[in-house]
Amino acid sequence: MYIFHDSPEAGHLGVKKTKEKIKQRLFWNGMNKDIHSYVKTCHVCPKTKSEKLRPPGLLGTVKPATAIFESLYIDLQGPLPISQKRNKFILVIVDQLSKWVEFFAIPTATAHRIVQLMEDHVFCRFGVPKNIITDQGSQFISKLLAKCCQEWGIKHYFCSPYHPQPNISEKTNQTLKTMIASYVENNHTKWDIHLQKFALALRTAVNVTTKCSPSLLNLGREIKLPFDNKIFQQSPTITDPSIIANTLPEQLNEIITFVRNNIVTAHEQSKKYYDSKHREIKYNPGELVMLKTHYLSDKDKKFASKLAPKWSGPYTIKEEVNKVTYKILDGTKELRTPYHVQNLKPYYPRKTVTFNLNRPDENSHPESNFPNKLKKNVTFQLDRPDETLQSESTLPKRARKSPGFYKV
Fold it and tell me: In the prediction, which pLDDT does 380 show?
């Protein structure tokens, strides 16, 4: 089977093609099962081939926040072309419940810069959140940001690497890129000129999920646009401000309840569609898996990512973090972060099986009349490159001087 699968003229093809080549030349009982097992347990194939199945992992469920600016999603966009104001990155902050956005153009994406903006322009203006959710960029896993969260009493949660979908700021990034591309034209150094106006546009637009504008949820009113001053020449008079002061908190609570229900309904609809395109998979502690690689091409090193292995491993499942995330071990060392199931796939090792044909009590079995040479220990080694059967004790004395191999 090594010749028909592992050799260069075989090309590590799949089960069907390997089976057809062998059937044209050889036959043995149980060959379909043997060929399938051999190809499935190949050590090279899982590293270089992708699974032709629906992506693993069903959509998880995240409870909506109970208050405005309770949970914040934070992400960085860039590097972008250095702008006329010497900026290169965009810090994006999105409130989970109201969808209020904050954009900050910054020249460097350092932890110090991010902490300073969060404290001065978010925490001190809108209040301290309970949670922040980020990816695992070097700026976000820094000790400085950990110290900031500790001082402000904030819990910091991380998305699993190479799986940014749980971070809702990623969707905002896509919208922001489209908005920037619509106005920069051929001069890409102007990307930060209208950044705050783009933020205003998103804050005043009715969100598809919440059915409310972020400004109404966050400020209790709609933000005026330049066109509004041309229509409304005078502000409406308020006869009794105390009435509004007393009823506004109750009205906002009703709106928040309405928004939370809308978020739950929208998530259920998204989950139904998402799960129809994905499959559920579960790993148990001790099982072997392959980990998806993310190589980058390097011209100087003459390295092409297209020719690099798509998977590395095998690794061992340590424990389940949630239904779609697992901690894995490289030998006995735990990897730094848990991984989503979309970055994992099962690994099937090739085993060595030993058959003991000796009877514990030969007189109690009718097979005790078998020749002595069939009562010897025979080791069938499945991971031998040439799939051979060795049993020197069963060979004639003349043959024992030569290597005792039988072709299977």
Answer: 44
